[in-house]
Amino acid sequence: MSYDGMRTPGRNDECWCGSGKKYKKCHAAFDDRLERLWNEGEEVLPRRLYKTPEDIAGIKASAEVNCGILDYVGEHIQAGVSTMDINDWVNDYLAKHDAISADLNFEGYPYSVCTSINDVVCHGFPNKDDVLKDGDIINVDMSTIKNGYFSDSSRMYCIGDVDPEWKRLVDVCHDSVQAGLAAVKPWYHLGDVSAAVQKVCEDAGFSVVREYGGHGIGKEFHEDPFVGFVGEPGTGPIMTPGMCFTIEPMVNMGKHKIKTDKSNGWIVRTKDGKPSAQWEVQLVVTDDGYELLSW
């Protein structure tokens, strides 16, 4: 029995990953390395969470719909649009592409997308009375299920003439995601990504939300590991080929403190009322870096 409780095949048996190859020619060396790291005290994910080529193909098909929705939003969003309009666009697009929302009914969440305006950090509810106006910034966070595979990404949209400092917040958050991606290297630590994101944000004078972060994803909406964006290099789980997760920092113009709307238990706002920004991408770690799946 291996570190993760899975049975290890014989060297000439079919590999556990479903490739059809003999174990010795497929994942034997990979598994030996994981076992060695585990014995050295490192945190490594159980093998059931690593994504096979078949899984990645399924996630890409889901992500094609997810990114298509965010493209559509970008083409149509403007002052005068309500956030419920966005929810309607999402439902129409999903229906036309044989997919469903991962958000809808997830732990009781009542809508198909999250629409977070200005000081809303995350989980903003679509509402016909929330009409976008000139100067607003909004995060649209979309998560899709297609053929059992999950994709997840979000984008910021600036409506009309946005305050330059608010625009800088949006841009710095985007830059921090790019820094996080640059830190994704196989067999390095996830904390390298966290530290890279945090540095970009705090060097710009902004703060990073602690309570929420990225997550593993693929066969389920939220899988291990939790991906925080405040941390130290050289800490956390080992990033290994086949590991699929999101980078999605929530960056506040003011302090990192947040508050949750007690009336619904979902909508999260900055405690000081200052604006917040978020971008989210989904990736899989590869032998030489990463592949972007949803953005």
Rg, Å, rounded: 20 Å
Total E-strand runs:
15
> Major beta sheet, specifics?
4 strands, antiparallel
The computed structural class is alpha+beta
What is the averaged pLDDT score? 97
Task: Indicate the overall shape.
Answer: globular
First-last Cα distance: 38 Å
Enumerate how many helices there are, as a single number.
5
Q: Percent of residues in beta strands? A: 15-25%
SSE pattern: HHHEEEEEHHEEEEEEEEEE
Task: Outline the low-pLDDT stretches.
Answer: none
Provide the helix percentage: 25-40%
Description:
- The model has no long low-confidence stretch (mean pLDDT 97).
- The protein starts with 27 loop residues before the first helix and ends with a strand.
- It has 5 helices and 15 strands.
- A hairpin with a 2-residue loop joins strand 14 and strand 15 (289-294).
- Helix 2 (53-76) packs across helix 3 and helix 4 packs antiparallel against helix 5 (190-203).
- Strands 1, 2, 4 and 5 form a 4-stranded antiparallel β-sheet that branches.
- It is α+β, with helices and mostly antiparallel strands and 295 residues long.
- It is globular, with a radius of gyration of 20 Å.
- The longest helix is centred in the N-terminal third of the chain and has 24 residues, at 53-76.
Please give a quick description of this structure.
By secondary structure, this protein is an alpha+beta fold. It is built from five helices and 15 strands.
Key features of this structure:
three-stranded antiparallel β-sheet; four-stranded antiparallel β-sheet; 5 helices; alpha+beta
Give the helix/strand layout.
Elements: H1 28-39, H2 53-76, H3 83-96, E1 100-101, E2 114-117, E3 120-122, E4 137-146, E5 149-158, H4 164-182, H5 190-203, E6 207-208, E7 214-216, E8 223-227, E9 244-247, E10 250-252, E11 258-260, E12 268-270, E13 276-278, E14 281-286, E15 289-294
Helix pairs in contact: 2-3, 4-5
